[in-house]
Fold these 2 entries.
Entry 1:
Amino acid sequence: MATAPDTAERDYFTDKSVLLDPYDFFEEIRARGPVVELTNRDMLFVTGFREAVEVLLNKADFSSMIAGPGPAAPLPFEVHGDDISEMVAAYTASIRERELMVNQDGDMHLAARSLLNPLLVPSRLKANEAFMESFADEMAREMVAKGGCEVVNEVAVPYVTLVIADLLGVPAEDRQQFRDVIDAGPPPGNMDAAEDMTQSAALTFMIGYFMRYLGERRANPQSDIMTELALARYPDGTLPDLVEPAKAAMFLFAAGQDTSAKLIGNSMRYICENRDMQDRLRADPSLIPAFLEEMLRLEGSTKMTARLAVRNTRIGDVEVPAGKRVFIGLAAANRDPRRWDDPNAFELNRPRIKEHVAFGRGAHTCAGAPLARVEVRVLFERLLRHTSEIAISEKHHGPPENRDLRYEASYIIRGLEKLHIDLKPR
Ligand code: HEM
C-alpha cells in the first residue's frame, strides 16, 4: 500500500519545475508505489508499467472520457454509488456532436475510429511515404544550404503538418492555410492556455474546411482519398453524418502534429549530444528505427493519458472506487525499473523495445503510430544523408557546459520549445 510523502508533494499540473522536467517527480511518486493517491489532487497516479498496461486494457472498468480534458479537469456530473457507467454513457452521448474519438468508449469509439480505415491502409501509407521522402529531402537540402535551422518549428511542425495534409489528400494550394492556423494555436496540455480542444480556432477552421470538402465529394464522388473518407461507412453499414469524418480528419492534425514534431526535437537533441550515435546512424541508416523506438521509450512526446473508473475496481492490488480519476504516466511506465533494466540508460536494440507505452495500449492505441514511425525515420535519414555533422547551435543555446534548452510547460507533451542546430554539409 502507498505511503504518504515525507515532504509536501509538488503539483504535477502547475509546478513549472515538474512540467519542464517530470522525471524526478515520477521517481518521487514511484518510491511510494506503482499506483498511489496524490496528496494534493483527487486522483490515482500510475507509474508502474504493468499497472499502466492493466488500466489501458481494462475497457470494462475504465472510461476514456477524461483522456482529452485530463484528470485535473472537474467532472461534468456528481459521482454517486459503486457504478457510474450509466452516467458516463449518458454524458458522452449528450455531447456526441463535439467529442473526439480519444474521449469515447465502446461501440461509439470503434465507429469513430473505423472512419480512419481508408487512410491507414498500407497502400495509402506507402503513397504518403513517397511524399515524405521528397518533402524531407527538399527541406534537408534547404536547411543545409542555410547552414542551420530551428528544427522544431521551422522544420518539424511544417513537415508533419503537410504529411498529414498529404495523407488526407488536401490539395497543395490549400496546405499553407493549414500551416498558418496551426502555427497560431497554443501547445496542448498547458493549463495557462487551457482551451477545450474542440473550441480552438485552428480546429474550428479545420472542421469547417473538411465539412465543405467532404460534402463536395459526397455530392460528386471522385477517385481520391477524400472521397473514400466521405463515403466511409460505420461497421454496421450506416453512413455517418458528415461532421463525423470531418472530425476524424481534423483530429489527425490535433493528435499527430505536436506529438511527432516534439519527438523529432527530442531525438535530434540526443544525436547532437551523443556524437557516436549520430555517426553510427549516418553510417548505417537501417539503425534509425531501433534508435527511434528507444527515444520513444526514454523521451516519448506524450507523457500521460487518463481514465475514469466507472465502477469499483482494482489496479494491481490497489482498490479503486467508481468515479476515481486515474493519471497514467506513460513516460513513467516507460522507465519502470521492474520492467526495464537500467531504465534511464539509452540502449540501442533493447529486447522487446516495442512494448513501450509511448503510443498507449489497447483500444485507443495511437492510430497514427505507423505514420509517426515512418515520418520521423524519413526526416532523420535525409538530414543525416546531407550532413557530415549536426550540432546544437551555441549561438542560440550556449556552450555544452551551460546549455539553455527549454521544454514546453505542458502536462501532456514532453518536448523542446525550440532547438537551433548547425548543419555541416556532407
Ligand atoms: C510520436 C508521435 C506520437 C505519439 C507519441 C502519440 C501518442 C499517442 C497516444 C499515447 C495515444 C493514446 C491516447 C489514449 O490512450 O488516451 C494516441 C492516440 C491517437 N493518436 Fe497518436 N501519437 C503520435 C503521433 C500521431 C500521429 C502522427 C497521428 C495521426 C496522423 C496520431 C493519431 C492518433 C489518434 C487518431 C489517436 C486516437 C486513437 C483512439 O482514440 O482510438 N498520433 N497517440
Entry 2:
Amino acid sequence: MATTGELRDPTATSDPLVAAITTRIPGIRILADPIDRESYRYDETAYLRAGLPRAIAFPTATAHVVELVRIAREFGVPIVPRGAGTGLSGGAAGIDGCLTIAFTAMDRIIEIDRENLVAVVQPGIINAQLKAAVAAEGLFYPPDPASYEMCSIGGNLGTNAGGLCCVKYGQTRDAVLSLEVVMADGSVIRTGGRNIKDVAGYSLTHLFVGSQGTLAITTEATLRLRPAPPPRSTMLAFFPTLESAGAAVAGIAAAGLSPVTLELMDRVTIEAVDDMNDLGLDRTAAAMLMVESDMPGAAAADELERAERACREAGATETVRAADAQEADWLRQARRAAHYALERKGDVRMEDVGVPRSRVPEMLRAIERIAAAHDVRIGTFGHAGDGNLHPDLIFERGDPQAEAKTDAVKKDLYQAALDLGGTVTGEHGIGAARRDWLEKQKGEDAVRVMRAIKAALDPDGILNPGRVI
Ligand SMILES: Cc1cc2nc3c(=O)[nH]c(=O)nc-3n(C[C@H](O)[C@H](O)[C@H](O)COP(=O)(O)OP(=O)(O)OC[C@H]3O[C@@H](n4cnc5c(N)ncnc54)[C@H](O)[C@@H]3O)c2cc1C
C-alpha cells in the first residue's frame, strides 16, 4: 500500500489536492495511488455503480478534518465520509474525483464516564471493540448491527444503524447524547452534552444521526451506556409456514413481552446457515424465530415461557432452548452470519424493508409472491420484532439478468412495504441505492423540507452529494 512518502503513481504526486493536504496537514496518511484508491470505490454494495475517489485521507484529529474540509472547498471537491465501508446503501462508496475521509485512524475511546453512564469516542472505533471495552467495566452499549465486529460507530451514527436488540433498546439514535461535528464550512459544533434531559433548541443530534454524511461530519460522539444486563437465555421456535412465524411475532408483541432479540429466518436462510455452521436446525421448517431474554433470573424463564406459548398458539411445531451461554452465542453468531451463509449460494443483494409489526405476516407473504412472480430465489431473515426484514435476492454467479431482475424485484418489494404502511429501508439507509423512493415514501413536502435543510447546512453541496436526497 502506498503512502505519501512512497507513491508509485507519478501523476498522484503531482495532484495539487494531494500536495495541499500533505503540506497543510504534515504527517497525515493519504492514499493517492490508483490501485489503493480502487479499494475505496465500493462499500458492501459492489453491484451499484460507484466512482473512483481522487484521494483518501486518514485524519487522526478533529483539526485535520477541519483542514480537509477547507481544502476540499477550495478545490471544489466533494467529500465522502467513510467508516468501515460495510454499508448496504452505497453511502460510503466513491464519487468520481471525491476526497474520501476515512475514519479508521480516529478510533480512540476518549473516556468511559461511569457516574454519568456515557462513553466518549472517536468515530472510527469498531462497534464490537466499544462493546468489549465497556463490558470490561460492567457496562453495556446496546446497538448491535449484525456486522458489529466490522462496522464503526461513525458509520452506525451515519446510518442510524439497527441490529438484533433494537426491539428492546432502540436504534443507534436512541443511544446518542451528543456529537461533535465538522460542518461544510469548516466550523466545529457540539450538539449536546452528558445531560439525559436537554430540550434547549432543535435536536441537532437527532438530525445528524442517519444523515449519511450529507449534513455534517462526525468527529466525536457521546454515547449512552447501561448497566450490563444478565447473560441471555435463548429459544428457537420452528414454524410450518412463514405466516405462522409472522403471527407469532405479532402474538409476542400483543402479549406485552419485550424480548431482547426477536429474529426470523426463512427456510432458504435456515438451510444456508445450517450448511455453513452445521447446527442441526430443522431444515423442513418454513421459518424459525430466535427469541432471547436478558431479564434477571426467573424473569427470563418466565418471559421465554410466555413467548413459547405465543409461538405454539401461532402454530410452532418445535421449540428448543440453548443449553448454555456458549450455545446461545453460537446460535446468535449463526444468525449474524446469515447474509454470508446465503452468499455461499450465489451472488446476493440484500434488501431492507420494514412494516408495522402486526403486518409482518402480510409482508412475508408479499415477498413469497414477488419471488415467484419474478422467478428469483429469495432468502429472508431479519429483525422481525421491529418489523424489519432483509429479503436477500440470490442469483447464479454471473447471471446476466441479475441487474434487471433486481430492479424489478426491488420495485415490487418497496411498493408492497409502502402499501402496508412500511418503509423502503429500516436501517441501511437511502444512500445512493434507494433515492428514487424517498419522495414516494415521505411525500413531496417532506422531501422539500429535507432539501431546505441540506441547502442551509451545505449550500455548495460538497458533503456526500447525490446521497439520500
Ligand atoms: C453482513 C452484514 C450485516 C449487517 N447487519 C446490519 C444490521 O443488523 N443493522 C444495520 O443497521 N446495518 C447492518 N449492516 C450494514 C452496515 O454494517 C451498517 O450500515 C453500519 O452502520 C455501517 O458502518 P460502517 O462503519 O461500515 O460505515 P460506512 O459504510 O463506511 O458508512 C456508512 C454511512 O455513514 C457515513 N459515515 C461514516 N462515517 C461518518 C462520519 N464520521 N461522519 C459522517 N458520516 C459518516 C458514510 O458517509 C455512509 O453514508 C450490515 C452489513 C453487513 C455487510
